[in-house]
């Protein structure tokens, strides 16, 4: 009776979960505008090599979808290069005017554009002095001032905006600046340079900078968690940005680069795509053209993307939390050895609370560790029970997605808590459910006294190798690398469908083999352990909240049908192989008896 009540509670918890999932899918389907930004210094460099102006080259790339430019914050050195300031070190200035009150170890700047250095010098907290030398007025600092930040190049920004381009401003963080952010230009996007955001050296400076942001959207750079960025965007508009380093890009073909940009937009919710040109115009145009075509196929529009703003209902999330808790209790009640079930459930709950806390993170983690094992704990008598396990995992998927996904998670700033537990605990939950309802000492004694043949050991070793292979291929930097052939296969799948995960392509077929009971019981158990990993991988796909939910569903669907098809093909093949092996003639008994 209690088991039925728990099942009803799990199904009822799906109501708020499906409402939340529907809201998220609706938001993600509408959030499909991207901007194609070109790095302005790289553009200028390429233009000069080919005898063009930056504006001319930018217009050429515009036909391939480029609608924005990333402009860096000026330094005093960049103003020197443009001829707006003159720089001299003290020793050189003394050579020009030996009688001038110049200090040889200082650096000096003088305005060509009237009043420029005078308008900038008070923005720094480094003391300065003014001198007359060589017929000019100079401002000097006791340090090399050429790298002092000088704010935006407003003329360039205004020109780009007048030409209809989006402008992303790239400020630096520097302690010499008294008031970071006091001169931010009127642009839609901010992309910070380096590993820190302006003002991150202290809470007071960061708060002062944050107050200057206005409605500008902060870009979150893929793979770079800048110091202060999380605090900065907690309640500020933000969106995700993808770029490829110049060194890496030079090793890739234009079509490979384009594929990565399309993948970033389609599967990781990047809405700012940040390009740097190749050395040649032809390669750059090929990269942009293929990116534009790929984005169009994926249903994206090129324009002005808005911030990622998703605010799920806290009430619905708490109601959905009933599902994982009921599932954990159902696991405990499904153990033949009841006390072991409750002890295991209590330990699981404790680990989840430690890793995820008494919060939505903890609820999502509980769903991720319970549902992958629950299906095989409830039923494992035949291959059709694999579909039941898939269905149970699907319930876990909806609950996990509903409870865990929020704005910070979808921005990639709140990674899933307890990822390692999502692989370990389902195996533990399933493995301990196999302990029979008898004195535990009898079970341990039976295990100890099992007689194993060499063939048994070989099969067990094969099963353990499968488990190890799947485990070591976990994450973005797996313990076992990707072969060249697999890399090519991944690329082919990636460009033509949503590529399923490796663990599912192994786990689902192996689970079907385990449920077919072709092998001895111990081997079926090992195969089902691999199957549990496949179910864990299926659920874990949805822990990446920055991936659109429909993409994760398609990835899971592809893993299920491909893995299921492989398993259905393997079952009769393995059955025939086992029958052929068992039909072998018996070895003749030795005519010579041992004496």
UniProtKB/TrEMBL annotation:
Keywords: Membrane, Transmembrane, Transmembrane helix. Pfam families: DUF5693. The keyword Transmembrane applies. The chain crosses the membrane at residues 318-337, 349-374, 386-405, 412-434, 454-472, 510-533, 553-578. It comes from the Bacteria. The keyword tRNA-binding does not apply. This is Uncharacterized protein. It comes from Deinobacterium chartae.
């Amino acid at each position: 009776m209690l088991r039925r009540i728990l099942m009803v509670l799990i199904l009822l918890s799906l109501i708020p979960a499906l409402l939340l999932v529907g809201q998220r899918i609706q938001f993600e389907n509408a959030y499909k505008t991207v901007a194609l930004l070109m790095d302005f210094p790289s553009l200028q460099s390429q233009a000069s090599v080919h005898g063009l102006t930056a504006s001319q080259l930018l217009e050429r790339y515009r036909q391939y979808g480029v609608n924005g430019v990333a402009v860096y914050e000026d330094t005093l050195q960049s103003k020197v290069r443009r001829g707006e300031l003159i720089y001299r070190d003290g020793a050189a200035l003394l050579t020009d005017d030996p009688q001038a009150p110049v200090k040889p170890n200082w650096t000096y700047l003088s305005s060509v554009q009237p009043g420029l250095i005078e308008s900038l010098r008070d923005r720094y907290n480094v003391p300065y002095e003014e001198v007359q030398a060589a017929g000019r007025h100079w401002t000097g600092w006791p340090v090399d001032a050429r790298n002092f930040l000088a704010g935006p190049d407003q003329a360039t920004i205004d020109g780009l905006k007048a030409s209809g381009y989006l402008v992303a401003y790239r400020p630096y963080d520097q302690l010499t600046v008294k008031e970071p952010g006091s001169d931010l230009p009127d642009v839609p996007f901010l992309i910070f340079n380096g590993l820190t955001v302006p003002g991150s050296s202290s809470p007071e400076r960061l708060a002062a900078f944050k107050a200057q942001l206005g409605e500008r959207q902060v870009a979150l750079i893929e793979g770079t968690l800048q110091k202060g960025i999380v605090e900065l965007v907690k309640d500020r508009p933000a969106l995700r940005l993808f770029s490829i380093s110049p060194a890496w890009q030079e090793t890739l073909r234009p079509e490979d680069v384009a594929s990565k940009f399309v993948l970033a937009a389609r599967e990781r919710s990047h809405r700012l795509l940040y390009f740097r040109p190749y050395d040649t115009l032809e390669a750059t145009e090929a990269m942009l053209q293929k990116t534009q075509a790929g984005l169009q196929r994926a249903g994206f529009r090129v324009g002005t993307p808005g911030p990622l703003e998703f605010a799920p209902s806290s009430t619905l999330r708490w109601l959905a939390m009933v599902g994982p808790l009921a599932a954990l209790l159902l696991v405990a009640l499904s153990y033949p050895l009841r006390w072991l079930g409750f002890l295991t459930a209590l330990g699981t709950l404790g680990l989840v609370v430690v890793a995820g806390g008494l919060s939505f993170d903890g609820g999502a983690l509980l769903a991720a560790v319970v549902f992958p094992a629950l299906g095989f704990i409830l039923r494992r008598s035949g291959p059709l029970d694999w579909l039941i396990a898939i269905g149970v995992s699907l319930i876990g998927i909806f609950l996990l997605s509903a409870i865990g996904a929020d704005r910070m998670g979808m921005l990639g700033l709140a990674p899933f808590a307890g990822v390692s537990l999502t692989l370990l605990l389902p195996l533990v939950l399933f493995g301990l459910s196999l302990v029979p309802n008898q004195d535990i000492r009898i079970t341990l004694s039976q295990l100890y006294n099992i007689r194993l043949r060499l063939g048994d050991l070989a099969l067990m070793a094969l099963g353990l190798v499968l488990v190890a292979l799947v485990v070591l291929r976990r994450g973005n930097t797996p313990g076992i690398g990707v072969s060249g052939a697999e890399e090519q296969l991944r690329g082919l799948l990636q460009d033509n469908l949503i590529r399923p995960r490796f663990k599912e392509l192994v786990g689902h077929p192996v689970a079907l083999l385990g449920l077919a009971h072709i092998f001895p019981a111990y081997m079926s158990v090992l195969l089902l352990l691999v199957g549990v990993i496949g179910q864990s991988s299926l659920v874990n796909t949805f822990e990446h909240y920055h991936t659109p939910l429909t993409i994760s569903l398609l990835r899971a669907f592809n893993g299920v049908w491909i893995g299921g098809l492989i398993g259905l093909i393997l079952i009769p093949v393995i059955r025939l192989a086992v029958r052929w092996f068992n039909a072998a003639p018996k070895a003749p008994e030795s005519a010579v008896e041992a004496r």
